[in-house]
Amino acid sequence: MEPAHPTAGPSVSPSLSPSVSPAPQSAPDPAFPAGPAPTSSISTLTLTRTASPQENPPPRPARMPWATRVARRLVPFGYLTPTIVLLFVLMVVPIVMVISYSFKDNVIVERNPVLVGFANYTQILTDPNFRTALKNTAIFIVGSMGAHLVLGLVFAMMLNSPLLGPLTRSVFRVLYILPWLFTIAVVAVLWRLMLDPAGVVNYVLEAAHLIDGQVDWLASPATALWAVLFINIWSGYPFFMISILAGLQGIPTDLYEAAAVDGAGPWHTFWNVTIPQLRPILLSMAVLDLIWTSQQFALIWMTTGGGPLNSTEMLSTYVYKQAFSSYEFGLASAAAVIVLLLTMLLAFFYVRQQRER
């Protein structure tokens, strides 16, 4: 009887059946307990950084004394002090004095002037000469502004035109800018000689059969205002021409090329491209001209003196006559305050327009 063999599955010889034995695993080191394996080097760096002790913060600088901090803040005002003092002495103090004089009667000429309240303002506003001066000033301002803008724009576009050669353009620039180079005194004397009855203007007009006899342009009430208006236009348009010419040269040529591609003609290009691009410059120049023309004194005083028969009386000459011809300094101060308020109103619109730009 044969011995019994134990029950077992089919035996496979190692040489005939390939087998993959698992990699040997080392026993865990008790000094380093097992834990989750790091996912990346950045995580390892983060864990190591977190585990490191926190560094000591740098020491805070010592707080400056209160006097030192105040002195440092006042340094910029120290540099501005000379200018502030000059503005205060030359502008604020005179304005305050004129305002105080406007409420007094017989100021300066008497030791103890009488406080009259708004009586000077009432007398000024009801004076026919003041209303005449106000009307003449309005005509003078509107006429000068309109002519300055139109002439300046026309001459600037002509000088910016490619039809003129470089030499011709330079010659016209010199000729057109000459009136701006002359001072008001020179302009007044020059035109007084030219507008004299025996002057060049009458000679040319008589030779062209435009007038029958000699005309005294600055001595006739019918022509004096228009004569000084023409002189002011002639002496002021070059500044507008230069400013508008600079604006024209700053307009991109791409806009004109796009307008040409769309089929726009010269007139439509002018109104839809040139004028919109020049609008900020035109508005600024108009407000500045409004302020400058309203304060024009030297030209009027050196040509007509406000005459004849108050036909060229302006607000500036009216105030001057009240102060230094009639010695009514209270009335002159009241008129000056009114002019100041009007000028401040114009300046407000100018500053507002500049901020909108």
Arithmetic mean of pLDDT: 82
Strand order of the largest sheet: 1-2
> Order of helices and strands, N to C?
HHEEHHHHHHHHHHH
Number of helices: 13
Radius of gyration: 44 Å
Largest sheet entry = 2 strands, antiparallel
In words, what does this structure look like?
The protein is mainly alpha-helical and 357 residues long. The protein has a domain at 128-356: MetI-like fold. The protein has 13 helices and 2 strands, in the order H-H-E-E-H-H-H-H-H-H-H-H-H-H-H. It has helices at 41-51, 66-101, 119-125, 128-159, 166-181, 184-194, 200-207, 224-249, 253-261, 266-294, 298-303, 315-324, 329-356, and strands at residues 104-105, 114-115. A two-stranded antiparallel ribbon has the order 1-2. Strand 1 and strand 2 (114-115) form a beta hairpin. Helix 3 crosses helix 13 (329-356), helix 8 (224-249) crosses helix 10 (266-294) and helix 10 (266-294) packs antiparallel against helix 13 (329-356). The longest helix is centred in the N-terminal third of the chain and has 36 residues, at 66-101. It is flat and about 90 Å long.
Q: In brief, what are we looking at here?
A:
The chain has 357 residues and is an all-alpha fold. The chain has a domain at 128-356: Orthogonal Bundle (MetI-like fold).
Could you give the topology of this structure?
Blueprint: H1 41-51, H2 66-101, E1 104-105, E2 114-115, H3 119-125, H4 128-159, H5 166-181, H6 184-194, H7 200-207, H8 224-249, H9 253-261, H10 266-294, H11 298-303, H12 315-324, H13 329-356
